[in-house]
Write a structure and sequence with these properties.
The chain contains 3 helices and 4 strands, in the order E-H-E-H-E-E-H. The chain is α/β, with parallel strands linked by helices and 130 residues long.
């Protein structure tokens, strides 16, 4: 059996993009991945839009918590940043990617769904190539 891969998704507030990515990685990665998410300046809450739009796909984010990068430790097989630029500190990993995705926080419903669906597509690709 292959070792479990550890993946960290990072954005500024850890309330939208990185939370959705973590949920998709857990869903599609199953037992072969340990997915975590964190923020450089966590908001302390999950955006209600993230809860609602992930709920449309059957994922419950209402129990998730916005976490700080200070709360995350250990080595990661992949670190994915999501458009946080200089606010995302360097976290060593053999695989690093920046998914320059817009923060969907202020987008309309269709825009939010488009970002959510793009995150799911990218997470699936990431898992296929880990």
């Amino acid at each position: 059996m292959a070792p479990v891969k550890r993946v960290l998704f990072v954005c500024v507030e850890n309330s939208n993009r990185s939370q959705m990515a973590e949920a998709f990685a857990r869903l599609h990665g199953g037992d072969r991945v340990q997915a975590l998410s964190a923020g450089s300046r966590p908001s302390g809450r999950i955006n209600p839009k993230a809860v609602r739009f992930m709920g449309e796909l059957g994922h419950d984010l209402s129990t998730h918590v916005s976490k700080s990068l200070d709360d995350v430790d250990g080595a990661f097989d992949a670190v994915i940043t999501m458009g946080c630029g200089d606010e995302c500190p360097w976290i060593p990993s053999p695989r690093r990617e920046d998914w320059a995705l817009p923060d969907p926080r202020d987008l309309d419903d269709d825009g939010y769904r488009a970002v959510r669906d793009e995150i799911q597509r990218r997470v699936k690709h990431l898992l296929d190539t880990l």
